[in-house]
C-alpha cells in the first residue's frame, strides 16, 4: 500500500482531490521502473492538474505531480537498479501518466535521470521542473552568445518558481540581473537571490506604439508572455536573445517583427517536457555544480500531500513565492 493525492471526477464533471491509500496494483501498467518517491514539488501545471486538468488530464482518477526525486525500488530495465537515486521531470508525467504526488511511482526508464552526486533528493525537488527549465533557458541564451560582459539580463515573473531559480543561477554565473515583479514585498527576497535591480511589473505591463525602444537588455528569461514579452522584445540589445518560458501573463504575443529584422533579436522557445537524455543530464550536472545551494534553500517552503489542493489554487492565482517542495512520505 502507498499514499497518494488522488483527483477524482464525479458524474457532474466536478473534480475533488484528496489523500488516499492505494494498492501497488493500481500503479500504471507499462512502466518499467518503480520509484520510492521521497520529494516532489508544486508547479503551475500541478495547480491545473489538481483541478479540472486544463485539458492535460484525460483519465480519472489521476495522481498529479509533474516531477519527483527518489530511490529506485525495483527495475525491469538494465540501466537502473534498486537503490539508485533518480530524478524525473517532463514526459507528461503527472498529466497523462500518474505522477509524483505519491509515495510510489511506476515510470519508463527513458524518462529518468540519475541524480548527480552532491545533490540530495530534497535539493533536486527544490530545483524541480521550474529550476530545470531555468537552467535550460540559461543554456539556450549562452548557446546564442550571452556572456556577462554584454550587460544586464532581465527575468520576468521573477518571484515565481522559474524566475527565482533563474535569478540565482544567473547571478551565480556573474550576470547582472534585473528582476521584474508585481509584488514589491518580494524585493528583499529577490535581492537576496542576487538581483541587482527590481523592475516593477507595471513598468512593462502597458503596450507602447513604438515597436523599438532604447536597447537595455543583453538577455531575458521570460515567464510571462503577452504584452510584457512584446515590450521586452523592443528593449533588447542588438543580436541578443529572449528565452520564452511561460505565459503567466497571457499566451498572446501582441508584437511587431521589427526587433527581429532591424536588431537581429532572437526569440528562443524553451520546452522542458521533451528534452533528450544527454541534455537533461547536462542540465542536472550544471545545476549541481552552479546553483548556489544556500540561495536555493531561501526559496523553499515545505508541505505535505494534504496541503497540496489549497496550494494548487494559490499557485494558479500567482500567490506562491519561490519553490514549494512536497514531502510525500
Ligand atoms: P509561478 O506561478 O511560480 O510564477 C509565475 C510568476 O509570474 C508569478 O510568481 C508572478 O511573478 C508572475 N505573474 C503571475 N501572473 C502575472 C501576470 N498576470 N502578469 C505578469 N506577471 C505575472 O510559476 P512557475 O515559475 O512555475 O512558471 C512560470 C511560467 O512558466 C508558467 O506560465 C508555467 O506554465 C511556465 N513553465 C514553462 C515551462 C516550459 O517548459 N516552457 C516549464 C515550467 C514552467 P511576480 O510575483 O514576481 O510578478
UniProtKB/TrEMBL annotation:
The record's listing under Pfam families reads: ADH_N, ADH_zinc_N
Q: Which InterPro entries match?
A: Acrylyl-CoA_reductase_AcuI, ADH-like_C, ADH-like_N, ER, GroES-like_sf, NAD(P)-bd_dom_sf, Zn-ADH-like_protein
Q: Where is the signal peptide?
A: none
Q: Where is the Enoyl reductase (ER) domain?
A: 13-326
Superkingdom of this protein's organism:
Bacteria
- Cited PANTHER family: ACRYLYL-COA REDUCTASE ACUI-RELATED (PTHR43677:SF1), SHORT-CHAIN DEHYDROGENASE/REDUCTASE (PTHR43677)
Q: What is this protein called?
A: Oxidoreductase
Which species? Paragemmobacter amnigenus
Amino acid at each position: 500500500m502507498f499514499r497518494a493525492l488522488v483527483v477524482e471526477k464525479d458524474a457532474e464533471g466536478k473534480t475533488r482531490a484528496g489523500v488516499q491509500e492505494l494498492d501497488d496494483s493500481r500503479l500504471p501498467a507499462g512502466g518499467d521502473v518503480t520509484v520510492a518517491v521521497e520529494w516532489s514539488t508544486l508547479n503551475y501545471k500541478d495547480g491545473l492538474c489538481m483541478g479540472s486538468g486544463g485539458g492535460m488530464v484525460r483519465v480519472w482518477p489521476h495522481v498529479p505531480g509533474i516531477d519527483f526525486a527518489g530511490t529506485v525500488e525495483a527495475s525491469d530495465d538494465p540501466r537502473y537498479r534498486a537503490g539508485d537515486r533518480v530524478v524525473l521531470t517532463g514526459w507528461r508525467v503527472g498529466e497523462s501518466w500518474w505522477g509524483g504526488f505519491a509515495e510510489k511511482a511506476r515510470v519508463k526508464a527513458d524518462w529518468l535521470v540519475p541524480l548527480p552526486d552532491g545533490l540530495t533528493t530534497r535539493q533536486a525537488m527544490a530545483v524541480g521542473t521550474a529550476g530545470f527549465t531555468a537552467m535550460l533557458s540559461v543554456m539556450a541564451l549562452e548557446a546564442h552568445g550571452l556572456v556577462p560582459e554584454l550587460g544586464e539580463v532581465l527575468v520576468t515573473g521573477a518571484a515565481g518558481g522559474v524566475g527565482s531559480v533563474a535569478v540565482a543561477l544567473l547571478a551565480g554565473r556573474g550576470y547582472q540581473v534585473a528582476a521584474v515583479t508585481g509584488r514589491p514585498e518580494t524585493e528583499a527576497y529577490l535581492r537576496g537571490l542576487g538581483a541587482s535591480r527590481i523592475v516593477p511589473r507595471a513598468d512593462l505591463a502597458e503596450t507602447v506604439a513604438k515597436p523599438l525602444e532604447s536597447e537595455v537588455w543583453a538577455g531575458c528569461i521570460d515567464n510571462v508572455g503577452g504584452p510584457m514579452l512584446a515590450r521586452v522584445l523592443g528593449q533588447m540589445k542588438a543580436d541578443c536573445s529572449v528565452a520564452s518560458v511561460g505565459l503567466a501573463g497571457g499566451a498572446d504575443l501582441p508584437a511587431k517583427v521589427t526587433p527581429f529584422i532591424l536588431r537581429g533579436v532572437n526569440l528562443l522557445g524553451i520546452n522542458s517536457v521533451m528534452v533528450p537524455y544527454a541534455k537533461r543530464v547536462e542540465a542536472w550536472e550544471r545545476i549541481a555544480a552552479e546553483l548556489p545551494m544556500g540561495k536555493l534553500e531561501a526559496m523553499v517552503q515545505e508541505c505535505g500531500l494534504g496541503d497540496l489542493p489549497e496550494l494548487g489554487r494559490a499557485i494558479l492565482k500567482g500567490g506562491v513565492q519561490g519553490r514549494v517542495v512536497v514531502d510525500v512520505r
